[in-house]
Design goal:
By secondary structure, the protein is an alpha/beta fold. It has 13 helices and 16 strands. About 30% of the residues lie in helices and about 25% in strands. An 8-stranded parallel sheet has the order 6-7-8-9-10-11-12-13.
Length: about 425
């Protein structure tokens, strides 16, 4: 990483490639047109976008024709529990139920907390290297961690505040009642830094759907927070939990657009008819899904959800921790996996798959009109070694540069910064 502290300076990036439209043959999209532009940045925002030309006396840096894309956003990760930064270790082969893992965490958390600040920072640097400047991160709230997971995470985020941003989910990983975490959740829900109230498999962990969900909803309402619960249950209890949370969002409009279900594996087991009904209810209640791509042998029905206008978020979740082995930290890889899993191969479909990495933001709309970037936008974007979005997704192209609110966070050695 190369911190250049450009946030408060006026400067221009020259030779930046932007998508300008689709190319058509026989009425079908067969390519993407691009052109070189100069982008002037001031006070963390885009001040001007013009056809490529000299900066005219303003400090300038050469992007060398790299393609600009919206910065990536990891919308489900656990920055507080990574093993990244420690010696390599795959997942433990035994005792893999959620309750088994709770016991495992109670054993290892005291030791992990000793280095959690440094390890969170290293994981953030990994994400930045792949073009991510924002994450929704869950942090443990449990009797073993107390408030330490949050306190350590806040210290790590403060150290990178000029180059990375996050929203925080208070996550009762060990159950609300299974380990008596309700008092802690009430305390932490009042912290200003917390954005969402989390939850975990209410029926299988706490023995009830209604009681834990009601507490979660009330904490969110009382503290003006959103909701983002983990729901791994795939059977009847999973379906009932989804619909109970939908009911709560419909009863409380202030939760609509701020309520999410992470994983929601029950959706993957539904019949097409039940899935369509549930997707329509999710959309009506503005309850989003934050999913893994993929999760072991589970293929989540993300295209069906998106077609029903359900907000769909994706993230890395595990990046080498005691829950999972395969997380890479690369959101562009997630977009590529989605393209492969759902059979997207054409120029148009691949370009649309970029939304899995950017949380919905795309350079071109479906008709090929440029809708990003615009003057006044936050200057948070990446420079990638690709000719267009479709190529970037298909080839998981190398990220050569990253800007966060005008700060130049990363600049690849093969594309050195050169003053004009």
């Amino acid at each position: 990483m190369n911190e250049l502290n450009q946030h408060n300076k006026l400067y221009t990036l020259e030779n930046v490639r932007l998508e300008t439209g689709f190319l058509y043959s026989e009425g079908q999209v067969v390519g993407t047109d691009t052109a070189l532009f100069a982008i002037t940045i001031a006070d963390g925002k885009i001040k001007e976008i013009r056809p490529n030309a000299s900066a005219g006396g303003i400090e300038a840096f050469n992007a060398n024709g790299k393609l600009a894309l919206p910065a990536f956003r990891d919308m489900h990760i656990h920055l507080d529990k990574t093993l990244y930064g420690l010696p390599w270790k795959a997942v433990f082969p035994k005792n893999r139920t959620v309750k088994d893992m709770i016991l495992r965490e109670q054993e290892i958390i005291p030791e992990l907390l000793k280095t959690s600040v440094e390890r969170a920072e290293k994981l953030i640097m990994l994400l930045q290297g792949y073009g991510t400047n924002f994450a929704r991160t869950h942090f443990n709230v449990d009797p073993t961690s107390g408030t330490k997971s949050l306190e350590h995470l806040l210290r790590a985020l403060d150290h990178v505040k000029e180059s990375f941003a996050a929203e925080l989910v208070a996550f009762p990983q060990h159950g609300l009642y299974y380990t008596d975490s309700v008092p802690l959740m009430r305390e932490i829900a009042a912290w200003d830094q917390v954005d969402f109230i989390g939850g975990l498999d209410p029926y299988s962990i706490d023995g009830s759907i209604e009681k834990p969900i009601d507490v979660t909803v009330q904490l969110a309402l009382d503290n003006n927070k959103g909701i983002d619960i983990h729901l791994h249950e795939g059977g009847e209890s999973g379906v009932k939990t989804i619909h109970y949370l939908i009911d709560k969002a419909l009863e409380n409009p202030e939760l609509q657009g701020r309520t999410f279900i992470s994983h929601a594996f029950a959706l993957g087991y539904m019949s097409p008819k039940d899935l369509q009904y549930t997707a329509e209810r999710l959309a009506a209640a503005k309850v989003g899904i934050a999913s893994s791509v993929p999760f072991r042998n589970m293929l989540m029905p993300l295209p069906t959800l998106r077609k029903a206008r359900v907000e769909v978020l994706t993230g890395n979740d595990n990046v080498q921790d005691h829950w999972g082995t395969f997380g890479s930290g690369n959101m562009l890889q997630k977009a590529n996996l989605a393209a492969q899993l759902y059979g997207y191969e054409t120029e148009f479909d691949l370009s649309r798959c970029l939304h899995y990495a950017t949380n919905g933001k795309l350079p071109l709309d479906d008709k090929g009109n440029r809708i990003w970037p615009n003057v006044g936008d936050e200057a948070s974007f990446l420079l990638v070694d690709a000719s267009c979005s479709a190529e970037a997704v298909s080839r998981i192209s190398t990220v050569d540069g990253l800007l966060h609110k005008g700060n130049i966070v990363k600049w690849h050695h093969s594309s050195p910064i050169q003053s004009a």
